[in-house]
Write a structure and sequence with these properties.
With 272 residues, this protein is of the alpha+beta class. The protein contains eight helices and ten strands. It has one domain: q2cbj1_9rhob like domain (Jelly Rolls). Strands 1, 2, 3, 4, 7, 9 and 10 form a seven-stranded antiparallel β-sheet that branches. The structure holds fe (ii) ion. Fe (ii) ion is lined by residues 137, 139, 213, 217.
């Protein structure tokens, strides 16, 4: 197996540590690299949510996000979510701030010439809501390239069923070898066969997770008393292989470097 952590690697110790965690767990969790950028995003969300829910109070200390289920019904939830994510994606600096939250980790795990998904996604998981669940899946099963990394940013503290789960790489290898029998006929059969092997992600607001979207992941009904709010967005190397999600439509280059720009525009001399 090709491994970025072998003895010939020139990665420094910190990079080796983060690389090793990503490769063995399937994810890496660390403090956000730019607290100001996270606060900007968080405040923008609060502003939009208050506007959507006609909340006049200006006190941002109130935990509106965790308890949004007290202000909105489940049938209204998806429209509300779509309005909020549309408005946040319209803010000109939003994607740049999102990138800044994870930049050093992306540098270490992906590289410094990056393509970013055009739209950042939002999940809102209210307690006891079974209408917006993500069954067990790997993004690569539906056309995402295995060269992608998901940057997952919680807007509230996430734990137990208020969070998501990931199947670690060693367990995924076992699943792949016995896929037909373990996956069964329904996605629930698949979950039942891996539920004792998955890692439930504990992550507090102020941290960011980068995870391997070729590993099976998903969520269950949120049995906690608070609502989950999390964003996710995919990043990959500009020149790493694409599958169905293409550069130009799904991904946009965000950090193209001089040599690549120069190389792509290079023309050999014309001979007459
Ligand atoms: Fe996914």
């Amino acid at each position: 197996m090709l491994n970025s952590n072998d003895e010939n690697s020139f990665l420094i110790d910190k990079e080796k540590d983060i690389t090793s965690q990503y490769l063995t767990q399937g994810y890496y969790i660390g403090p956000v690299a730019d607290k100001g950028a996270l606060s900007w995003i968080h405040n923008s969300f609060l502003h939009i949510v208050k506007e959507e829910l006609n909340i006049i109070d200006e006190d941002n200390a109130e935990p509106i996000l965790d308890f949004v289920h007290q202000k909105i019904s489940i049938p209204e939830l998806n429209n509300f979510r779509l309005n909020v994510i549309k408005k946040i994606n319209q803010l000109p600096d939003f994607r740049k701030k999102y990138f800044q939250i994870a930049k050093p980790y992306l540098d270490m795990l992906v590289g410094n010439e990056l393509a970013m998904q055009v739209k950042v996604n939002l999940s809102i998981q209210c307690p006891d809501d079974d209408s917006s669940l993500l069954p067990t899946h790997a993004d690569t099963w539906s056309g995402d390239s295995p060269f992608e990394v998901v940057v997952w940013v919680p807007l509230v503290n996430c734990y137990k069923t208020k969070s998501m789960y990931i199947l670690p790489p060693d367990e995924n290898e076992k699943l792949n070898k016995n896929f037909t029998s373990m996956a069964g006929a329904h996605s629930e059969d698949l979950y039942q066969s891996i539920k004792d092997k998955v890692d439930w992600i504990n992550i507090d607001y102020g941290n960011v997770m980068l995870f391997n979207n070729s590993l099976p992941h998903g969520n269950r009904v949120n049995m906690e008393s608070e609502t989950r709010w999390s964003m996710n967005c995919r990043f990959k190397g500009i020149f790493s292989p694409y599958w169905d999600k293409k550069l130009g439509s799904f991904f946009e280059p965000i950090t193209l470097r001089a040599a690549s720009s120069s190389g792509m525009n290079y023309k050999l001399p014309e001979l007459s």
